[in-house]
Design brief:
single chain; 414 residues; alpha/beta; OB fold (Dihydrolipoamide Acetyltransferase, E2P); Rossmann fold; 4 domains; five-stranded mixed barrel; 12 helices; 21% strand; Exonuc_VII_lsu_C; exonuclease; Exodeoxyribonuclease 7 large subunit; cytoplasm; EC 3.1.11.6
Length: 414
């Protein structure tokens, strides 16, 4: 038996023996399951950086006494403009893991944020130029905001002052509009990814416009709104987007990409929500204009009708009335003569009839001395059999009548 065998047996009794692969996998498992190391932000200075043809980026972060290897895969590197340079101070967000072939730990980067103002400005300008070439800031693709929005989405921090400002303005200006809040981080290393998530969620709803707002802060706090992911989500949104980032001096790339922007959340809300008092004034103005226009058109139509009627009357006179005047006069004269003749003939017949009636009239006989006798019942008495002694009768004469009493009766022949 070799001398190594007892030694191995002795080690096996005191401690577990691992292979290099087993140890490496064990350490890898420890690092990748640590809650802190799963999502971590590391601050340091870029020592060297290499852009591989595959699209991956390899670089190192250095501090006073330490150095950290980092890799950013192409899926994340595409969202970072070509700004990092050796000497730039940055914050790298990602997770810690182990690279087994070399047995080293490294930072798998998901995002890089510059800290120096020079690096920030250089990063912003480089990204701005690249996105401008793609047409993301072209004014011709800006969408018009709805005049009377019914549903408005607000992407912002649920605990910040921005959401309160938007709701306050909405209640004052256009309270009938429905507001949907999509909470998100608005600052920090994880903010760009969270803002993009909230924007994608808002894009799935039935909205009229989206407000992307945050309260005031330092220029460094606005860095997430210069992120390419946020800019692309704004342009990919199916509804108009209005930004109110809360910085009057410097516009973010999100402001350039938005369909409209304002320096503050309240100002952005005022762009979206119409003032109901102004709407009421406009309605009154439109009403007055409609009344005036209706009256004017009515007067024009009335005047036109008057002119047409006068023209029609002249036409009728010229075409029909004037040529018939002579015939009408002749017919009128003939009619008048005919009527006069008929009246004369009627008068003659009337006079003849009157003479005949006068000859037959009882008054004629009465005027010659004849008297008519009436009973008390106003019946004509023509025979002695109709009366008796003591009866009262009326004697009718030409100029009146007299009442008499029968004293005696003398029949004919006695």
């Amino acid at each position: 038996m070799s001398r190594e065998a007892p030694l191995l047996n002795d080690f096996a009794k005191r401690i577990e023996i691992l292979s290099v692969d087993e140890l490496t996998l064990y350490i890898k498992d420890l690092l990748e399951n640590d809650l802190l190391l799963k999502s971590i932000a590391v601050r340091g200075e870029i020592i060297e950086i290499k852009h591989h043809s595959s699209g991956h980026v390899y670089f190192s972060l250095g501090s006073k006494q330490s150095r950290l290897s980092c890799v950013m895969f192409r899926s994340s590197a595409n969202y970072v403009p070509l700004w990092p340079q050796a000497g730039d101070e940055v914050v790298v967000e990602g997770s810690i893991g182990v690279y087994p072939p070399q047995g080293t730990y490294q930072l798998y980067a998901r995002n890089i944020v510059p800290l120096g103002k020079g690096a920030q400005m250089r990063a912003k300008e480089e990204l701005k130029k690249r996105l401008e070439k793609e047409g993301l800031f072209d004014p011709r693709i800006k969408r018009k905001l709805p005049t009377f929005p019914e549903r408005v989405g607000v992407v912002t921090s649920k605990t910040g002052a921005a959401v309160k400002d938007v709701i306050k303005v909405a209640k004052k200006r256009f309270p009938q509009c429905e507001i949907y809040i999509f909470p998100t981080l608005v600052q920090g290393i994880e903010a760009p990814q969270d803002i993009a998530r909230a924007m994608r969620l808002a894009a799935t709803k039935e909205l009229d416009v989206v407000l992307l707002v945050r309260g005031g802060g330092s220029r460094d706090d606005l860095t997430p709104f210069d992120d390419e992911r946020v800019v692309r989500c704004i342009r990919a949104c199916p509804f108009p987007v209005v930004t109110g980032i809360g910085h009057e001096i410097d516009r973010t790339l999100s402001d350039y990409a938005a369909d409209a922007y304002a320096p503050t959340p309240s100002a952005a809300a005022e762009k979206v929500f119409p003032d109901r008092r102004e709407i009421y004034k406009q309605i009154l103005h439109i009403k007055a204009r409609l009344i005036s226009l209706t009256a004017h058109r009515y007067q024009d139509a009335f005047n036109l009708c008057e002119r047409q009627l006068a023209r029609l009357q002249n036409t009728v006179k010229n075409l029909y009335l004037h040529p018939s005047d002579l015939k009408l006069t002749q017919k009128s004269q003939a009619l008048r003569q005919g009527i006069d003749r008929i009246i004369a003939e009627a008068k003659e017949r009337l006079a003849h009839a009157a003479a005949s009636l006068d000859a037959l009239s009882p008054l004629k006989s009465i005027s010659r001395g004849w008297i008519t006798c009436l009973s008390e019942e106003e019946e004509i008495v023509t025979s002695l059999s109709q009366i008796d002694i003591g009866d009262k009768v009326f004697l009718c004469m030409v100029d009146g009548r007299a009442q008499a009493e029968i004293k005696s009766l003398h029949p004919k022949g006695e």
